[in-house]
């Protein structure tokens, strides 16, 4: 069971939910940018939520399925097609052998996830499948996917081929996932103030929540540079390096902001004026250069409540997906 | 405020200095930082390491990671698991902040075991330290004097950060404490740099802004070695000069 890359994309890598436990070695968590979409992709095909998925940036690769298999596509909408037919996102899909998955047009979003039933058969580095490009380790040989790469699937005992109708390249199963409010109000990003928030002038504090910020083209898996009004601190004390995290909003010396994303460095020395709440990282991960962000201040209490609610929703989805899949194969 | 804890207290640490002030603050909703001051200080760094040691020896459900920086310890956790397992009355953040408080109190008498001195060969010859000549000129020393001063000091590894295995060491003798470059340039793996009172080794090829004075043939980051990162916070390091020929013979090994 495998798939083959017949045409490479801009940046397609194997990722899981991240590599926790090594930041004291300078090795960041990494992993998928949109943890929600990747977890749902796995649930739809009956996998553990931490299985490796392929994170696809636009323009995406073309994938040839070497065998009949069960897949799902979630996250950014690049008008996914299997041969000449559009494929729905957020559904389990049985794919016929030799079908080609491709992504002709960017509709919305910034990272698209492909999961296969059983998961991809790649070796772990430091307990994670995630590709660490700088270390050239993890995922598929520590690098992005290239033409001719063949990625095997883990063996499973369940076969879905009986669900394929004659003459059809794929069959989208009847149920799908409603992503609820995870991606609602995509430009409204909640943050909690960071340790250096109080160093901002009152005018800058107001500007942070009243003005809009635009995502600069120079934004990637490491961080989003933002364009907006210059923010000022009333004291420009130098900071010694200390920890930063996924979602940390740093103030650069030129007054502009950067939001650290999945591949951020473990430590930094710029003022941390805020942190995007975890429940809003999935929608932030789907924003694109030139999209705007409207920051809304909240507190740790609310941040935790929203994250717990999102996790509860994922737990319910997982149970429902399992029940549906089991009823199909029995 | 949203639960910032600022407390003053007195406690004895390993070398009998006193930590008078610290601050616990959320680093987002899934991490807490215990910060003992915006300074490069060996006692504070050792205290943070002792706290990390204690936490790793007393882990809790939902503890994901911890890391020590110059004068702080940060704990990464899963708030959903904390809420589920410990059902705290307040936030998961407050619960973890309390754990850090405990770590601070429990490590009062901890003394760091003296670590073995790690000696690192460095070639300071032409072609290995592209910024050495300029640094010597700006400090009005000869290149030989810069090398002598750089190799004379025993450095403390304060933290690993920036890149996998990048070691932040100090403190550099003030006679050679040159500021970092205005614009970063490409740096080869193994390069030894100076930035103010810090010195460090680039474990990977990377853009970098430190003044590169030499290069070690040792591989300080090897992803597939049993221990991928050779240096860790708390280590003591001294450099010694080697010739080009010695550098090349190392590379063969």
UniProtKB/TrEMBL annotation, chain A:
InterPro entries: CT_A_B, Cyclophilin-like_dom_sf, PxpC. It holds the Pfam family CT_A_B. Residues 24-313 form the Carboxyltransferase domain. The keyword Hydrolase applies. Gene3D superfamilies: Cyclophilin-like. Keywords: ATP-binding, Hydrolase, Nucleotide-binding. This is Biotin-dependent carboxyltransferase family protein.
């Amino acid at each position: 069971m495998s798939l083959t890359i017949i045409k490479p994309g801009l940046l397609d890598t194997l990722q899981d939910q991240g590599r926790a436990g090594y930041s004291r070695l300078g090795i960041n968590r990494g992993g998928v940018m949109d943890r929600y979409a990747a977890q749902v992709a796995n649930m739809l095909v009956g996998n553990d939520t931490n299985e490796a998925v392929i994170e696809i940036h636009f323009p995406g690769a073309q994938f040839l399925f070497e065998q009949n298999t069960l897949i799902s596509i979630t996250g950014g909408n690049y008008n996914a097609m299997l041969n000449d037919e559009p494929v729905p996102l957020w559904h389990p899909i049985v794919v016929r052998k030799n079908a080609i998955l491709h992504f002709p047009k960017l509709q919305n979003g910034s990272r698209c996830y492909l999961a296969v039933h059983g998961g991809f058969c790649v070796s772990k580095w430091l307990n994670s499948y995630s590709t660490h490009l700088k270390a050239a380790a993890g995922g598929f040989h520590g690098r992005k996917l290239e033409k001719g790469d063949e990625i095997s699937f883990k063996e499973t005992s369940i076969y879905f081929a009986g669900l394929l109708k004659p003459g059809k390249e794929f069959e989208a199963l009847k149920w799908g996932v409603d992503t609820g409010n995870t991606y609602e109000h995509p430009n409204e990003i909640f943050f909690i103030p960071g340790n250096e928030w109080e160093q901002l002038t009152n005018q800058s504090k107001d500007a942070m929540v009243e003005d809009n910020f635009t995502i600069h083209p120079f934004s990637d898996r490491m961080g989003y540079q933002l364009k907006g009004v210059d923010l000022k601190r009333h004291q420009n004390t130098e900071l010694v390096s200390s920890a930063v995290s996924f979602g940390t909003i740093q103030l650069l010396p030129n007054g502009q902001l950067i939001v650290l994303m999945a591949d951020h460095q473990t430590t930094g020395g710029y003022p941390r004026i805020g942190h995007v709440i975890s429940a809003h990282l999935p929608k932030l991960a789907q924003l694109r250069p030139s999209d705007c962000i409207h920051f809304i201040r909240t507190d740790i209490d609310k941040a935790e409540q929203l994250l717990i609610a999102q996790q509860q929703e994922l737990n319910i989805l997982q149970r429902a997906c399992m029940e549906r899949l089991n009823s199909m194969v029995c | 405020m949203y639960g910032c804890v600022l407390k003053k207290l007195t406690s004895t640490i390993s070398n009998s200095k006193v930590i008078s002030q610290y601050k616990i603050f959320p680093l987002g909703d899934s991490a807490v930082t215990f910060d003992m001051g915006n300074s490069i200080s060996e006692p504070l760094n050792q205290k943070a390491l002792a706290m990390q040691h204690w936490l790793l020896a007393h882990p809790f459900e939902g503890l994901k990671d911890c890391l020590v920086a110059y004068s702080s310890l940060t704990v990464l956790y899963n708030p959903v698991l904390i809420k589920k397992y410990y059902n705290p009355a307040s936030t998961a953040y407050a619960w973890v902040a309390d754990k850090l408080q405990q770590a601070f109190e429990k490590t009062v008498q901890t003394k760091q075991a003296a670590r073995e001195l790690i000696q690192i060969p460095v070639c300071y010859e032409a072609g290995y330290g592209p910024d050495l000549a300029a640094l010597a000129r700006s400090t009005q020393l000869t290149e030989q004097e810069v090398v002598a001063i750089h190799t004379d000091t025993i450095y403390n590894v304060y933290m690993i950060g920036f890149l996998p295995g990048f070691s932040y060491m100090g403190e550099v003798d003030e006679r050679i404490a040159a500021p970092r470059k205005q614009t970063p340039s490409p740096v080869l793996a193994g390069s030894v740099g100076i930035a103010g009172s810090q010195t460090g080794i680039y474990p990977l090829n990377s853009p970098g802004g430190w003044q590169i004075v030499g290069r070690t043939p040792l591989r300080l980051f090897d992803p597939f070695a049993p221990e991928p990162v050779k240096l860790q916070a708390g280590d003591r390091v001294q450099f010694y000069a080697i010739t080009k020929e010695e550098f090349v013979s190392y590379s063969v090994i």
